[in-house]
Amino acid sequence: MTELSLTCYICNHCQNTFSEPADICSKCGTREPLSRMNLPTRGRIVTFTTVWRGAQYLPRPYVLAVVEFANKYQVLGRVSGGGSIAVKQEVRYMGKDEYGYLFELAG
Ligand SMILES: [Zn+2]
Q: In the list 22, 27, 28, 44, which could disulfide-bond 16, CB 3.0-4.6 Å?
């Protein structure tokens, strides 16, 4: 795990978000450079599923969730921490490994 915070790119005209820099905004068409934005370390679960059968290189079962940040930017990642997981629950970004983003349930 290397990253300490997530970043995204945002269009200054329409606030559309991107995971990578782009030459043109696919929503409003502006060609002005996108702004790089550091995301907060916490987001909320939009939806999730428990994966029982899947990639054999990951210990199963594991929870896969869509996590949304305050600016509506969403990423897909794995959530650890045990306990019961629910929609709208807060998670903390823990980094990224070769298989994707990692979160844990926040307090
Ligand atoms: Zn735009």
A: 27
97 has pLDDT over 70: yes
- Domain membership of residue 76 (yes or no) is yes
Asked, for residue 65, whether it belongs to a domain, the answer is: yes
The alpha carbon of 32 and the centre of ligand 1 are apart by a number of angstroms equal to 9
pTM of the model: 0.85
Distance 73 CA to ligand 1 centre (A): 14
CATH at residue 81: 2.40.50.140
Supply the pLDDT for residue 84. 87
CA of 24 to the centre of ligand 1 (A): 8
What is the 39 CA–ligand 1 centroid distance (Å)? 19
Strand partners, 65: 48, 77
**Ligand 1 centroid to residue 22 C-alpha, Å:** 11
